[in-house]
Design a protein that fits this description.
Blueprint lengths: L11 E10 L2 E10 L2 E8 L8 E8 L4 H11 L9 E6 L6 E6 L28 H9 L11 H4 L2 H8 L1 H6 L3 E6 L5 E7 L2 H14 L9 E4 L5 H10 L3 E4 L5 H10 L2 E4 L7 E4 L6
Parallel strand pairs: 3-6, 9-10, 10-11
Antiparallel strand pairs: 1-2, 3-4, 5-6, 7-8, 7-9, 11-12
Helix pairs in contact: 1-6, 6-7, 7-8
Length: 280
Amino acid sequence: MTEPSPTATGGTVDVRMVRARVGDRVERDDRIVVEAPLEFQLHHPALGGEAVSFGGTMRTPGDDGVLAAGLLFGEGIVNRAADIIAIESSTRRPNVVNVRLDPAVAMEFDAPARRFSAGSSCGVCGTTSLDAAIARAAATRIVATSSVELAVLLTLPQRMRAAQARFSDTGGIHAAGLFDNSGTLLGIAEDVGRHNAFDKLVGENLLQGRLPLSDRIVLLSGRASFELVQKALRAGVAVLAAIGAPSSLAVNLANVAGLTLAGFLREQHCNIYTHPQRVR
């Protein structure tokens, strides 16, 4: 097997591999998803004259600006698009994005405590106080919203899959899709990390002034963990559905906060773990 081609574009790269079967070996090209580090640097007067690292993650390159915006919104650093003056890729250091915050943003001196080196599957793993994160999410309440037909909900995996260009190429990338209650796809984000995909989706809507995502459905390509329920609550999502299973903490949090959480979404059935009244 050879090294990846240096001309990776669109978040994927071609590699040489051997397709092996019993009695047969064939060398051929394959397309895989790119995984690369990204560090977030914050600029704010309260942090001093130098940029302060807010940590890093492993992600699929592309849409780094909306990823940064979504992450900072999910962490409670920013609350609206106007809180961000600019998001710029570093010209001196590859895989670094600089976020310049409005001086009016309230910033504690220890706010960038989420300094970590995370894998692409990591969500809340860099937060210094997990108890505080859980308490903040549990204090959220999703108000009563309009319902969605079960028949519509069951069609969403196929609709999202049809829009996943990178998944079709590689088979190795996560997605988060945004739908209205009629099943219309409003947006989709892909990334090697499922948390990053959600952050990209939220960041795009934050910068476009579309938050909160009231009367919206978010579909996850993988499982529904606590961190993803936390992100959904922060964005005001009413219905969160996943192709995979939820965790116990995700179910408990969704139940307390009033979020409808569905898992194992298939063409014929799904499991509705919390607040099933929104699914008719």
